């Protein structure tokens, strides 16, 4: 089971985004949070910055759209250079159609769930996706503490993926650090968004490697991975 570490640019120095992107070029993806101050109470960056980032780094961009009307905007982020686009289940009017459109444009399609949104009601949609993102904090701000009460939801999501025999990545975002990543990996995640744990480190690239090693060891010993 391949472990993927996606540093969150939200925790980087916005005045030096190109340099900060290059500082983690050993990462699997660069996680980019797009917030509109409507779906979540924060405003970050948009299409022009994503276009610039895609030219500034060879690391593929993992876009997390915390915005209203992703049905309209998500395809434009693929065209701006995103290799993966995540929309929120709570915001999408037609999630199946949107996922298919993202895929048709050549990117991976992913769906995110807020902490209070159950995974079970979206079970039938899973085959339309390449990744599911379980938020382990309330979306909107970086640097929040990890919510342990989300671990059972991660486990249930992994069970649904196995039930349907899907090749579906399971991402977690929120409070992922050296002290929490092993628990999330054991629960079933294999893609990890890390913000301050990477960009707050003296050596961000070394922090990525450490987190990957920790998660890999936890997954290797996890019952869900041993069944594969």
Automatic annotation (TrEMBL):
User: Pathway membership of this protein?
Assistant: Carbohydrate degradation
Q: What class of enzyme is it?
A: isomerase
Keywords carried by this UniProt record: Carbohydrate metabolism, Isomerase, Metal-binding
What InterPro entries does its record include? Answer: Aldolase_TIM, Ribul_P_3_epim, Ribul_P_3_epim-like, RibuloseP-bd_barrel
Which Pfam family is an annotated match for this chain, by its short name? Ribul_P_3_epim
- What is written in the cofactor note of this entry? Binds 1 divalent metal cation per subunit.
EC number(s) stated in the UniProt entry for this protein: 5.1.3.1
**Taxonomically, which superkingdom?**
Bacteria
Example GO molecular function term? D-ribulose-phosphate 3-epimerase activity
Q: What's its catalytic activity?
A: D-ribulose 5-phosphate = D-xylulose 5-phosphate
Q: Which residues are named in the active-site annotation?
A: 33 (proton acceptor), 173 (proton donor)
Q: Which residues bind a divalent metal cation?
A: 31, 33, 64, 173
Q: Which residues bind substrate?
A: 8, 64, 140-143, 173-175, 195-196
What cofactors does the UniProt entry give for this protein? Zn(2+); Mn(2+); a divalent metal cation; Fe(2+)
Q: Which family does it belong to?
A: Belongs to the ribulose-phosphate 3-epimerase family.
| Protein purpose | Catalyzes the reversible epimerization of D-ribulose 5-phosphate to D-xylulose 5-phosphate.
* NCBIfam families in the cross-refs: PRK05581.1-4, rpe
Q: What is this protein called?
A: Ribulose-phosphate 3-epimerase
Protein source organism: Streptomyces racemochromogenes
